[in-house]
Design a protein that fits this description.
By secondary structure, the chain is an alpha+beta fold. Helix content is 59%, strand content 15%. The protein folds into 2 domains: 105 residues, Topoisomerase I, Chain A, domain 4 (Orthogonal Bundle), CATH 1.10.132.20; 68 residues, Gyrase A, domain 2. It has a 4-stranded antiparallel sheet with strand order 3-4-6-5, covered by helices on one side. It has a two-stranded antiparallel sheet with strand order 1-2. Helix 1 packs antiparallel against helix 3, helix 1 packs parallel to helix 4 and helix 3 packs antiparallel against helix 4. The chain starts with a helix and ends with a helix. 24% of the residues are buried.
Length: 187
Amino acid sequence: MSEVIDMIVDDMASQMKKAITHLEIELTKIRAGKATPQIVDGIMVPYYGSPTPLQQVANVTVTDARTLTLQPWEKNMIGPIEKAIIGANIGLNPQNDGQFIRLFLPPLTEERRRELVKRVNGEGEQAKIAVRSIRRESIEDIKKQQKEGLSEDAAKDGETKAQGITDKHIALIDQHCKDKEKEIMTI
């Protein structure tokens, strides 16, 4: 019967890893004063009537620490790309010279840094909520197995394992948030 507990705990751990991966992806989208191509991830551009990811209609490069350059594959895409960037509300104003679109990242003010730290902590809290929800579902599965004949000791051991894995993942979330906060607050 402990094989069932091991399966539940392994499934829980893999789901929690996915929550951590999602947090890492979201944290890369929060800019810390440095230009990265991930800033424009998720921006959709209308391309012949269908929404298309920006990276599929333009080449995104980092020119220097504070500049992103977008070179559309087709010249007629400059206008729609600019509109999509403005509509995405990422806090950057596109500037074009007819061939390229440049995004200049302004230096972060103290107030803006604090806002970004709040956003980082919000993302961290969402990840913690996801991890706790996964733990709750796993413990419910363990209790369901106990009603179906699993021994009480095995169920308690499973719940203890589940809590240990949860604690480890929450500590990992805290560490990611702390690292990102340090990156943002470093001038």
